[in-house]
């Protein structure tokens, strides 16, 4: 079903046209997290030490993906994309804000995964052609060629839309299983689990638990804003909620733990810890995993970016309301290719990645708090689909913008910035989840008070 009634088009998927199974949904979310970026995140939080990093990983994963399950339910219930759904809380025109945020962050994640995969390709080019690996003099050539090749893969992967995503995830998850088992065996043949648990990073590089939670939250919450883009293709509630929650957590714990123990294991083996060397390619090379490991890293990048690019394309379609999803996918893929080159010219990849994560955590949390409270509390899980395109309808607010949602978002972002400078919060539980609660309460109260006054 697609309705058009004054402003844009609402591509609601009717129940009869939904064929995504429990396994498809589970595999989609396992594949979304079982990739290079998750491995890299595990390597980054290794700076906490194993126990602190593991605790932060489990807590952040469970909380974040409960929110994912809730957002996924919204897609199942309505058949609408994630950014279309934000029209109800932010207004038909106000939804431009979350759409821009989503497009930027998923283009960013696609660039992150592409960069890591291109680094792996530089190792392959070294083995095949003798080119220097990235990070060594002359190694930029292999990286640039890798970025171009990966971008071609991504264009091919998204060319068939949702069907291609399902196919890629089904193939990718098999490769991931093989690779993770192999990686785990190699790590524990090199270093004992006791040594990994006992290892502590140098004091000057140590990360606090709060910083780790914020890093992980920024990574995990990105998927919450894309949940409906996939759950709208299933007609069974548990596929949207249970499968999404379990799949995302399995992928997260699986690959982040591999990244964590591989990074610590490498630090112990070399007697040196450098967070800049936490990417899968460098670790795999130092552990002697060789050619096949690089191939798997490249392929798993494609599985993750199939989801990233689909979500970015959906956001762009909601913003423009004139171009098709296929055209949007091509546009965001080409933009992501350009963004991938930034770390070559701006700073180290880790520096760019850290700034990117902090920005995501700052803007995403409030957005999520607002649209979840609007659907589950204020609207009681009932949205009027026809009004999603109706000028002067109930989601029009003032000139198409719900200024209370915008105000809540702005105040919450300011709270995030402030809390990052409060050690009692920033160093222990982090600012991200606190700010989500603040946005939920503030938006709910403001909307209730306004409704009573009217």
Write the layout of secondary structure elements.
Elements: E1 2-3, E2 10-11, H1 22-33, H2 36-44, H3 50-78, H4 82-90, H5 96-129, H6 140-158, H7 162-190, H8 193-198, H9 209-224, H10 228-231, H11 237-240, H12 242-270, H13 280-286, H14 290-320, H15 325-340, H16 342-345, H17 349-378, H18 403-419, H19 423-426, H20 432-453
Antiparallel strand pairs: 1-2
**H/E series:** EEHHHHHHHHHHHHHHHHHHHH
- Main sheet overview: 2 strands, antiparallel
Q: Indicate the low-confidence ranges by residue numbers.
A: 1-7
SSE class: mainly alpha
The CATH homologous superfamily: Hydantoin permease
Distance between the termini: 33 Å
From the spread of the alpha carbons, the general shape counts as globular
Overall domain count: 1
DSSP strand count: 2
Q: What is the annotated CATH architecture?
A: Orthogonal Bundle
Nearest-angstrom radius of gyration? Answer: 22 Å
CATH topology: Hydantoin permease
Kindly report the average pLDDT value. 85
- DSSP summary: helix tally: 20
DSSP strand content: under 5%
Protein name: Purine-cytosine permease related protein
GO molecular function: cytosine transmembrane transporter activity
Subcellular location: Membrane
Membrane topology: Multi-pass membrane protein
